[in-house]
Amino acid sequence: MSSQYDEAVEQLMADYHRQLDQLAEHQRRMSEITATATSQRKSVSVTLGAQGQLLELKFPTDAYRDMAPAELANVIAEVFAAARTQVLKQQRELMTANAPMGMDLSKMFGDNADLGKVLPRDPIMTDQVREYVDNGRVPGMDD
Question: What positions belong to coiled-coil segments (predicted)?
Answer without folding.
Answer: none
